[in-house]
Amino acid sequence: MGGQRDKKGKVVIVSGPSGVGKSTICKEAVKQLNNAHLSVSVTTRPKAEGEVDGEDYWFISKEDFQQRTDQGSLLEYAEVFGHLYGTPKDKVDEALQAGKTTILEIDVQGAKQAKMIYPDAVMIFILPPTQRELAERMKLRGREDPETAEERLDEADIEIAAAWQYYDNMVINDDLQQAVKEVVQIIQGPQTGTRLAGTR
What we know:
Blueprint: E1 10-15, H1 22-32, E2 36-38, E3 42-43, E4 58-59, H2 62-71, E5 74-80, E6 83-88, H3 89-97, E7 101-105, H4 108-117, E8 122-127, H5 131-141, H6 146-166, E9 169-172, H7 176-188
Parallel strand pairs: 1-7, 1-8, 2-7, 3-4, 8-9
Antiparallel strand pairs: 3-6, 5-6
Helix pairs in contact: 1-7
């Protein structure tokens, strides 16, 4: 199968609007895949209750973040709702050299930057079943005040519109297990236009 391919790993980019369930899908997919791991981003936002440093994010200061961007040690970075987020490039490269599948859970602007560095990255966008469903999920999460939630929903519209242009794979998170299964299949599947053509 596949002849003399070198052992280099694969980059998988997973994006989607806030509240769509990206983190849960990514964590579940990693459990089902062989030799896969989730890239941990650095962020300047304060740690939320229940989050673990180095597991959910690396929580760092703005100064430290600035230093990393100046040194070019971040694969991509973006400001989202007043906080900075970035992907440490060295960690991604280490995993790839070790032949691992590395999943980057990043936003659309970050994904564009990462795709330029890893042109053969697998691009997956997670969609909510409906806009109303997304609003409900955000309300249940209870992390945002109404104004922020409204802002995030507007942002979601823009992201979803951009996603049709940049992402090869769209997965609707209507049923979590089904969404995880689809993501796993896309990651394992042949990397030639992974839209499932001709299936009924």
